[in-house]
Structure formats: C-alpha cells, structure tokens
Amino acid sequence: MDFSFSPEQERFRQEFRSWLAANLPPELRAYDTHFDFVPESVELFEARRAFQKKMFEARWMGIWWPPEYGGRGAGLIEQFIYDQEYHRAAVPMLPNFPHINQWGPTLMTWGTEAQKRRFLIPMLSGEETWCQGYSEPNAGSDLASLQTRAVDHGDFFMLEGSKIWTSGAQWADWMYLLARTDPTAPKHKGISCFYLDMKSPGIELRPLVTMAGHRHFNQVFFDKVRVPRKNLVGPVNEGWRVAMTTLTFERAISGGSGHDLQVRRLAELARAVMIDAKPAWEHQWVRQRLAQLQIDCEALKYSALRALTRQLKQLPPGPEQSILKLTGSELVIRIVKFASELLGNYATLDSPSAAVPDAPRWLNLILNARMLTIAGGSSEIQHNILGERTLGLPKE
Q: Where in the sequence is the domain holding 381, given as residue range(s)?
C-alpha cells in the first residue's frame, strides 16, 4: 500500500505550513489542544477568535466545506494533511473548531436553506460561537435516556431541563441541543433537535471546575425557555437521526492526534532530566519505554491512514473510527504515566522550571488525560461496539 503524497498534495502542505509560520502568534500556541480547548479568559477567547477570522479570510477554516459556505471544497487527503500541520504548528483549539467539524456538516445535511445561509458563514468565521447540548446528568453514555422536555405550543416550544459537560457554554452565542418532544414514544423516538439563542430568558449557567482548575465545562439549566419553531432542525421527533449525524462526525475526529509530538518532547526532556545522578536517557528502561510509545504512535498513524483509505474508496464505515477513539485515548494514558515517572517531582509543578520549562503542560496532561477515555464515547462503549459489531460477540 502506498502511503506517500503526490507533489500537488505536498505543495498544499507547504502552503499551509508557510502560512501558519508567518501568521500564528507564538503566544497563541497550544501544544495539547485536547486539554486547552476552552479559553480561561475573555482576552484569550477574543485573541483566538481574531486568529480564526484571519484564517477564515485566508480560506484556511473548514477547508472541506463547500466554497459557497466559505470552505475550499478540499478532499479527504487535503483534510488529513491539514490536520497534521495544524497539530505540528500547535495551533490552539479555535472557537467553533469542534462544531465546524460536527454541527456544520449536520446543518448542511438537515438544515433548511435559510438556516444554512444564516449560520454557516458566521460559524466558520467565528463571528458567532456555538456549544453542544446533548449530555444530561442521567444521560451521558446512554444519550437516548435524556429527559429535557420541549413542549409544543404551536409557534414555539417550551424548554425545561438541564444539560451537563457543556464545553464553552460561557462563550457561546448559540447551542444545538436535543430535547424530548414526545414522552410517550420509545426512548430513541420522540426526540427533536433545536438550536437555541443563549441569551434567551430562563437560561442559567453554572461552571463545573475540574481538578486542574479549568472551567471548560458547565451545567446549563432551562426554566421555561421559549424556542421558536423555526429553530427546529430536521423533522419533529426525528432528532435522534440528526444527533447520529453529529456523533458520526464527532467520532471521526475523536481518535486523538499529536501523540507523536508529546513523545518527541519527552525524548528531549529525557536528555535534560536527571535520574540517579545521570541523564534519564542513559537508563535503558527510559529508552525502551520511549521506543514503545513511538511504535504505538506509528501504529495509530497507520490505522488512521487505513480509515482514510476506506473513505477514499467510498467503502461502508468499518471499525477504524472506534479503534482510533479507543487506542488514541488509551495511548494518552500510557504517555502521561511515563511522563510522571520520567519527570518525577517536576510533573507536579504548575510553573516553569529550569530543567522542565513546560512543566505546567505535563501537570495539565496528567490531571486531565483520563477524561479522554470517557468523552466522545467511553472506552467501554468502544469495546462493546468492536466486540458486538465487528467480532460478532454476544451483546452485553
């Protein structure tokens, strides 16, 4: 199998790499976007939004979107190259980045022409920001158990309930959400999809502070919130089908990336950090662990290329996305376990040190890594998907 890129594709890579080198401010770089996806301050939020606008104006946002919505109509290989260069340059998670990959294509699939014209360009440019309202306190992995209600009043629906783990809700202008519109229907039926103005009366946000001190997440409460009927996306009571479109795109980008960059940085630190009065690199176990992690990164890369090949051949979806999600999130756990052993006390520092200038990065990784095995479909769910749908094992 040939995994090389054509000269034209390599020119595309160099064009994007050169543009980022010339335009990305060094102070905006974020080396682990999984754990730095929501800005902590309004100043950082606005700085990232300004850079998103700059990327949009240069047509470097949503490159695979159709040109009429601000994209380039780029193919899968160009998107793959784009993602590689995005992470290599440490571009931060910009406002709407996940929603451009999830909600944008969902709206293209299910939205009316008026909805597409109204929302897609402002989403891509960062002029308007979004958050996702799917998970609830008792409906996370089992999303179909959601209990937030939207009662039909003709011209509007009355929304009651709450959503949880709502990333970036404090910065969002809009939310796309699921609500139960027919409580008598089976749980996968009777659900509808809406978009909601976050300035609507009756919305309350409460931050959920992580043990790392981050305020990425929120719980959002709805108390008699009026949602205009025009805000319905897709048919009434068919929201589960709309949600599956969104989650398909979410799983496609949840396999993780940038693992090899983390391992390379640890290899650099191994030459600077001392263990038993000599550089860590001189210990055989350190070199062996680094070698194994690099092998794991290569295996993950080729699994991603295999998934890309299926898409290019327009074959039905295979197990690759669940494999990428499962192995990618579990690989992060192994990386941070090694980082804590390699760095020792430096891994507990929330400020730079002479030996480990990026110590806060590793503390952040260690404290947050476990969430990747839960968010976007837990490892247990991915095991079930692979066991039942791919291996034909009995259902749980």
A: 254-390
